[in-house]
């Protein structure tokens, strides 16, 4: 930043020539544009590429682009069903895109029979001590404070909380608002994608209250 300020000062101090004035204008405009984009990308909205089968069919397995809301960074106002982008706790320097399944304090079921493998690779820790042919019982997990439980929509090809456990909210970089091809075809993901399960008595109450 100091180097840019020094360059701007030198250009302004240059002789009053058309070329020097033009260069000063270009430099000033570029500095302002970069600063504005940095401010927007870090605090409001940004976009980035996404590739892989873990969120199919919600997000295409081929290369696509996500528009992210930075206002949800660090888990602010995140809800169950939101699709988030976070720093991968498994691969340094890489990001992951998954759906929030559980919030702090929620209970989630990790059932080996429903998701025994990910890309034909067994999930670590789920089969240790289990005998061949013996079905391992589901495990109830409570999401700790300051964390979320995430899963890919395509469970058979997703490395998610079943692998690395709950994700710290500090790793969340944003919430996915739109997914598209980078040009004119975009799908909104802003509305809730999941609905809470209802108890039998709640369903009965709704049926009784319906007119007719």
TrEMBL record:
Its main location: mitochondrion. It comes from Cladophialophora carrionii CBS 160.54. InterPro entries: LexA/Signal_pep-like_sf (IPR036286), Mito_IMP1_subunit (IPR052064), Pept_S26A_signal_pept_1 (IPR000223), Pept_S26A_signal_pept_1_CS (IPR019758), Peptidase_S26 (IPR019533). GO terms for molecular function: serine-type endopeptidase activity. The active site is at 54, 98. It is found in: Mitochondrion inner membrane. This is Mitochondrial inner membrane protease subunit. Residues 30-177 form the Peptidase S26 domain. Coiled coil: none annotated. It comes from the Eukaryota.
């Amino acid at each position: 930043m100091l180097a840019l300020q020094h360059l701007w000062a030198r250009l302004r101090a240059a002789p009053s020539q058309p070329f020097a004035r033009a260069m000063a204008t270009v430099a000033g405009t570029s500095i302002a544009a970069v600063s504005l984009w940095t401010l927007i990308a870090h605090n409001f909205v940004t976009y980035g590429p996404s590739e892989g089968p873990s969120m199919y069919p919600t997000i295409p397995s081929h290369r696509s682009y996500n528009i992210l809301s930075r206002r949800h960074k660090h888990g602010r106002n995140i809800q169950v069903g939101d699709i988030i982008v976070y720093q991968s706790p498994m691969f340094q320097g890489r990001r992951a895109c998954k759906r929030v399944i559980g919030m702090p304090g929620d209970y989630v079921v990790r059932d080996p029979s429903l998701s025994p493998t990910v890309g034909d690779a067994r999930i670590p820790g789920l089969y240790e001590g289990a005998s061949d042919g013996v079905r391992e019982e589901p495990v109830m997990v409570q999401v700790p404070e300051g964390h979320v439980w995430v899963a890919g929509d395509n469970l058979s090809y997703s490395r998610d909380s079943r692998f690395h456990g709950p994700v710290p909210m500090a790793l969340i970089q944003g919430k996915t608002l739109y997914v598209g091809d980078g040009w004119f075809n975009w799908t909104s993901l802003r509305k809730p994608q999941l609905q809470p399960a209802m108890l039998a008595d709640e369903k009965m109450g709704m049926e009784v209250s319906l007119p007719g």
